[in-house]
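Marked as duplicate of an earlier ticket. Keeping the data here for the record.
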Amino acid sequence: MSDRIFELAPWLFSPLAIIGAGLLLAQLIGLGLASRGLPKLYGAVIAGLLVGVSGLGLVDAPLLSQFQELFNAATALVLFEVGRKMDLQWLWNSGREGASLVLASLLRGFASFACLAAFGIPSGEAAFIAVVLIAASPIIFASMAADSNASGVATFAGANMVGIGNVIALLALGPALAWMKMQDPASNGFGAELGGELSKLALGAVIAVACYGLYAVATRVTRAPARQRPGMLLAALLMDLGLCSVTGSSALLSLLLMGLLLRNAEKRDNVFQAQLKTGQDIGYALLFMMSAALVEIQQLMNPAVLALALLIFMVRIGVTRIAFIGSGAWSAHKKNAMAVSMCSLVSFGTLMVDNSLGTYSGLGPAAAQVIASLLALNVLIAPALTWWGLKIAGETHEEED
């Protein structure tokens, strides 16, 4: 039967053709949505659901694993852009505003832990999941901001908060992973496991400094003009990602640090964003389609688990809004908008970058089901809520794009 199918439609057996067809479908649907004032990137979500495991089944985890490096590169561009938009000087001088962004990230983790523990998830597993839930998704926030051409004080604060939350989550993930690994009989103990996790962070930072230094030296020695530097920077980013992958170091921290260095250490004109906007748009669509293709709708069929996942989403938005009470720099309207736009959650795979299709090993069945439901809702509703948050902040400028 498979030979007969191959004769009729040989492209069905080409993984690259399937991905290309999915991206084309995503663009067609996305343009239709954009013409009605809706987020264009939801076209990638719909296309992913149609061709993925909940639809035709043409795209699944084994097929996507063949393009792991491609997805890693797309994620790397997003994480670099998150770091590039973090303004360390503003965070240091802003006082209560910067502190409220840190507080919001911490409260999201504590509130998530309380919800999971109340549901009966073991404390160790609840703590591990709560650490991941500290952060908002850099992919969702950056893509929705780019899709709606958003700019303004709320978007600026949100971009900084995404970076802060991911750094906090990454730092907290070290002890959490060490604790999970310690349960393995072959483990060397919490101290040894924690040391291993911290060394990955340190090595990621060293790789970032080395790659950025190489980029800075190369562009200055050659006196490369602004229009040629983006290509050299992209080469340095790929070197960074590759070195982190082969050494097992923290790619997320390394790529964020690369972005931070470009914004806060580079004094020359930067045209990186303008030069690679088309590539980033394709990367966003690819990542959205990949995530949607792996969503199993039946994961949302358990009423109790679905209720918990929805509760966590609402609680994270609520505590984020509470954290902004002490700041007087933003109006109540802006604070509400920022809280909604920070609703998304990051996946464990995005935090690790070089294993974005990986699973949550070590979690029990109940915790794994909760994670699956959270990630499914994250793909289906978080982009819309993020887009709506930017919209109600009054900072979207689609008509100018």
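See parent ticket for discussion. DSSP finds 20 helices and no strands in the chain.
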